[in-house]
Amino acid sequence: MRRKICVPGAFRKPFERTYARRAGNVSVSAWYCRNKQAAQKAGFFLLFCCILATLLFLGSIVYFVFAGGSKVLTWGFLTQWPRNAMTEGGIFPALLGTFYLTLGAVTVALPLGLACAVYLCEYTPGSLALNAIRIGINNLAGVPSVVFGLFGLAVFVKFFGFGVSVLSGSLTLGILILPGIISASQEALMAVPNSLREASFALGATRWQTIKKIVIPQALPGILTGVILSIGRAAGETAPILFTAAAFYTRRYPQSPFSEVMALPYHIYALMTEGTHPRQQTVIAYGSALVLLILVLLISGTAVFIRQRQRSIYG
Amino acid sequence: MKSSISKESVYASVFGILAFACLFFLAGITLVLFKEGLPLFSKVSLWDFLSGTAWYPTHEDPEFGILSLLAGSLWVTAGAMLVCLPLGIGSALYINEIAGNTQKAVLKPLVELLAGIPSIVFGFFGMVVVAPFLQRLLHIPTGLCAFTASLILGIMAVPTVCSLSEDALSYVPASYREASLALGATRWETLIKVVLPAAGSGISTAAILGVSRVMGETMTVLMVSGGAAIIPYSFFQPVRPLTSTIAAEMGEAAVGTTHYQALFAIAVVLFTLTFIFNIAAEILSRRYRLKLGLQR
Q1: Tens digit of pLDDT for each residue in B208-265?
Q2: Bridge partners of A82?
Q3: What would the 3-class secondary structure string for chain B be?
Q4: How far apart (Å, rounded) are the C-alpha atoms in residues B231 and B233?
Q5: Does B171 touch chain A (CB under 8 A)?
Q6: Is B270 at the interface with chain A, CB within 8 A?
Q7: What are phi and psi of A164, to 5 degrees?
Q8: CB proximity under 8 Å: B 240-259 to A
Q9: Which of A16, A242, B154, B273 could form a disulfide with B84 if both were Cys (CB 3.0 to 4.6 A apart)?
Q10: How far is B227 from chain A (nearest CA, A)?
Q11: Model pTM score
Q12: B187 contact residues in A (CB cutoff 8 A)
């Protein structure tokens, strides 16, 4: 007897094969069943090994950075200036620089990105242009960060004449995280059920009132997750600030948006590749890497926490 | 009533203007890259640029052939994929299909968290820990080579590939699994013969985006790949991928020189490559969603 199997065409073959095989005599079928169980065990074990290896590898990075960095990580390390040609002292100016650059980047990218997402989703929903723009934005999210650095160099540093400065770096980082903010906000806005909008319109609210009071509050956790993840990304990126903002050493705090600045990720790179005392510099680099790692993990941890809570409420 | 309508149109136009400013910026990147990079081809032919193996930008008689850099990128990317595809997809399958709810609630955020580790930390780790270790273990002349770069980049891309494949797997309707189990298939058979084929194009999207990410990674390869502009014949030779060439040399290249233009031309090549990858991923993921009967 041949039963009709309701699976989509593409998957029908494997089913039929299995079905035909299992129609054989009983002993073959018993052997086959045992074999199946063994295959399942082996397969599950293999997958378990995959995730174990992943976590071990990534965990070992975190472990080594913690082990090497915790020796130098003191309060003074965070609040002092570097001394003796970068072999002693702290990383305070680099921390400050990273803070300025990240703040600048978010100030640039957040209003622009959010407005762009709101316009595309709420004012011109479902248009053909929307799809093209979405693809374009996704594309830019995948463009290598060093390419953004080149753009910043050509446009902000040279063309507008901002020089190697906090301003150029912030703008470059801002544009780098813009696609991410737009697409995260778009996802969040599109996830708001249309019935909510319709209910609001039916009560006589205007489009702007609906956006302000219904749509954005609903989408806020999603938007926030995207924005916070972007902040983490901006804080950790090195390539875009390589030629637009960063200096290995500055004598003073940045005086204005037009002065160059030390930054934590670049500091690690410079300690490893420049300077004259590689051994002592490596120790400082360990400390800097630990601080950066903690900073970024805290930031993305917040985002992941918000997302997880959201999942457990709606998922 | 009148005033609220005019207020509405003000808001609409403000959002419109900001949105177009945004898009203008993003389109500007493409334009600037091409504007700064294309003048190179009046001095060096496109064919020489792509197929030349000699990259001597600062010589008296400079040569701008990026084949060895391109080869470096491809070697490193290929090696990284060998590491990250099995681990990433395997982890995604584990999280989505095998892990219970508690495990899932821990593992999924953990992977997302690890995706946030900055690339400079990976580069630092590779330089300080992995490269010396591999040098001693394998008795190779230098630990800073394509192999180390592949390994580190591969591990770095695992969380990305894992999260994206996990998304793809979660779109597979439960009815597919139920149908398969009801037919007497084991969970493993269901996984291999039903879920994996159904999520196939979604997973390939993840893989393509992983490739695109690895290829564009800069700081890690700059620090651990060794930096020799030669066509590698083994995994244990130092290489110089496209991205690290830009990062290493842009500091020295004066604006408007041929070298400057050549570096922008490399950026155009990178841009084009990632563009192709992303479009491919987009097409695949669209087809995938249609196949599973999802709208977006």
Answers
A1: 889 988 988 888 888 888 877 777 777 788 888 889 888 888 878 887 788 889 999 9
A2: A89
A3: CHHHHHHHHHHHHHHHHHHHHHHHHHHHHHHHHHHHHHHHHHCCCHHHHHHCCCEECCCCCCEECCHHHHHHHHHHHHHHHHHHHHHHHHHHHHHHHHCCHHHHHHHHHHHHHHCCCCHHHHHHHHHHHHHHHHHHHHCCCCCCCHHHHHHHHHHHHHHHHHHHHHHHHHCCCHHHHHHHHHCCCCHHHHHHHHHHHHHHHHHHHHHHHHHHHHHHCCHHHHHHCECCCCCCCCCCCCECCHHHHHHHHCCCCCCCCHHHHHHHHHHHHHHHHHHHHHHHHHHHHHHHHHHCCCCC
A4: 7
A5: no
A6: yes
A7: -75, 105
A8: 243, 246-247, 250-251, 255
A9: B154
A10: 13
A11: 0.86
A12: 40, 44
Contacts of B93 in chain A (CB under 8 A): 47, 50
Task: Give the pair of three-digit tokens for residue B29.
Answer: 């990147």
Q: How far apart are CA B149 and CA B79, in angstroms?
A: 8
Pull the structure tokens for residue A241: 């600030």
Contact between A182 and B91 using a beta-carbon 8 Å cutoff: no
Instruction: Give me the torsion for CA of A234, A291, A304, A102, rounded to 10°.
Output: -20
Q: Find residues 177-216 of chain B whose CB sits inside 8 Å of chain A.
A: 179-180, 183-189, 191-194, 197-198, 209, 212-213, 215-216
The partner residue sitting opposite B264, judged by closest CB among A22, A65, A150, is A150
Q: Is residue A311 predicted with pLDDT exceeding 80?
A: no
Using alpha carbons, list the distances in angstroms from residue B134 to B72, B138, B141, B146.
19, 6, 10, 12
**Which pLDDT does position A21 carry in this prediction?**
52
Q: CA of B259 to nearest chain A CA: how many angstroms apart? A: 13
Residue carrying the six token digits 């999802």: B294
User: CB-based burial of residue A115 (10 Å sphere; 0-12 exposed, 13-18 middle, 19+ buried)?
Assistant: buried
Both ends of chain A: CA-CA distance in Å? 42
* Residue A236 backbone dihedrals phi, psi, to 5 degrees: -95, -10
Contact B26/A268, CB-based, under 8 Å? no
Percent of chain B, pLDDT > 90?
22
pLDDT 10s digit of each residue in chain B, 296 long?
Answer: 556 678 888 888 888 888 888 888 778 888 998 998 888 888 888 888 888 788 887 777 788 888 888 888 999 999 999 999 999 999 999 999 888 888 888 898 899 888 889 999 999 999 999 988 988 888 888 878 888 999 999 999 999 999 999 988 988 888 999 999 999 888 999 998 899 888 888 898 889 889 988 988 888 888 888 877 777 777 788 888 889 888 888 878 887 788 889 999 999 999 998 889 888 888 888 877 777 766 44
Residue type, B98: I
Strand, helix or coil for residue A178: helix
Residue indicated by tokens 């690339």: B119
Do residues B219 and A238 make contact, with C-beta atoms less than 8 angstroms apart? Answer: yes
Q: At A11, is the pLDDT very low, low, confident or very high (cuts 50, 70, 90)? A: very low
- CA B32, B38, B39, B40 torsion: positive or negative? positive
Instruction: Give one DSSP letter per residue of A185-233, joined into a string.
Output: HHHHHHTS-HHHHHHHHHTT--HHHHIIIIIHHHHHHHHHHHHHHHHHH
Compute the distance between CA of residue B98 and CA of residue A52 in angstroms, rounded to an integer: 13
A54 three-class SS: helix
DSSP state of A274: S
Q: Report the candidate in A252, A136, A231 with the shortest Cα–Cα distance to residue A181.
A: A231
